[in-house]
Amino acid sequence: MFHKNNVVCAVEFGTSKVCVLIGEVGSRGELSSVIGQGMVHAPGAVIKGEISDMERAEDALSKALEDADRSSGGQLVNCQLLTLLVSGCGIESKQSKGIVTVKNPDGVITEAEKQEANENAKVIPLTGGREIINTSISYYLVDNRRVSNPLRHSGRRLEAFVHVIHAVASRLENFRSAVINAGVENVRMEPVFSPLATGIGICSDAERENGALLIDLGAGATEYLVYFDRGVCASGVVQLGMEHVANDLAIGLKLHIDACRRLLESGTLEKAVKEKKSTLELPGVTGRMRSIPVSSFEVIVDARLREIFEVIRCQLQEKNAPQALGAGGILTGGGADYFRSKELFSDTFDLDCRIGLPVEAGGADLASPRFSAIWGALKVAAFFQQNYVASPEGGFNKVIGKFRRFWERGN
Prior knowledge:
Shape: globular
CATH architecture of the domain at 7-89 and 169-204 and 358-363 and 370-409: 2-Layer Sandwich
Strand content: 25-35%
C-alpha cells in the first residue's frame, strides 16, 4: 500500500527533454519499483544545462508531472521528497582536505573524529553567491597512510579528502522555482549533481573499487566523474554535446538541423555504414533533398566527439585524476547510442569501455542510456526518504554522513 513515506520523485531538465519518474520505496529503504513516468520534449527550454526559457520549462515539467502521475495511478500526491538533477549552473568541483588530531589516549580513531575531519573538509571559501550542492568522500590518510575507512585505525593525524561540488546559487534557484511553479508544493527538494546520480544508477561496486571513468554524453552538455578506490576524485561539465554534433553537420553540409538530429538518433548513419552505402539523402536548408557522401558525415561527427573527449582528458590531467583505472570507462547518456562513440571514447582515454544503462528499473521501460541519470536520481531519492523518515527533525545535515556512505557503496 502506498503512503506518504514510500513515494519519491525525480526530475530532470534536459536539453532535449524534461523527464519525471515516480518510485516506490521498499520496507528496507531501497527503491523497489518505478510506478510513474513522464517525458516531454522541450527544445529551447534548457540550453547547456541551464534554463533558458522559464515558461517553456515550467509548461514541459507540468505536462511531464501529469503524465507521471497518471501512470502511477495518482500517487504523486503522496510524494514528500523530490531529487532534482542539476548540471550547468556554473558547477565546479574541488578536492578539499579536513585535518583532525586524534585525541583518544590509545590513538584509535573514533566515529566522532572521522566525522569531524569530514566536516572540516567541507569548510571551503565560496565567492560570488555560490553554494555547495553535494559532497563525496574520496579517501583518508592516517599518519600519511591512505585508507578507505579510518575507523579503529591507530594514528595521531587524520586527514579526510572530500570531493566538494558547488554551483551558482541564483542559477540553481531557477530550477527550484520551475519545479514549484509547475505545481509541486510541500515537497522536500534536494539537488543532485547529474553524474553523481548517474554513477549511483549504473556503476557497480567493482567499478567504484577498481577505478572507472564515467562520461554522460548528453545533448547540450557532457558530464564526467572519476571513481578511484570507492571514492569520487574528479568531476566536471563540458558545455558540448550531441546538439553541437548536429549543428556541425547542419552547417558543414548545409542540411536542416532537425534532419541531422534524427540522423544521429535513429541509427540511419550506422545502417548506411554497415550496408556500405556511398551516399545518404537528407533535406537541405531549403527543403530540397541533397545527396551527401556517408564519409562526410563520419568525418564531421568523429571530429566533434574526439574534441569533446579530448577536452575531458585535458581537464582530468589538470585535476591530477588517477589514470590507472582498472574498471575502464562507462559511457552513457543519449550520445552513447551513436555507434562510434564507444570506440572514440576508448581511443581517446586508452580504456576499455562499456555502455551504461539502467538494468534493474522494475516497473518501467528505462533500458536506454538516456535514462541513466534520472534512474540514479530516483535511487538517491529513496535513500534520502528513508533517512528523513528515520529522523524527520534532522534534515539534510543529519543524514549527510549516511549520504556520503551511500555515494561510496552506490546503493
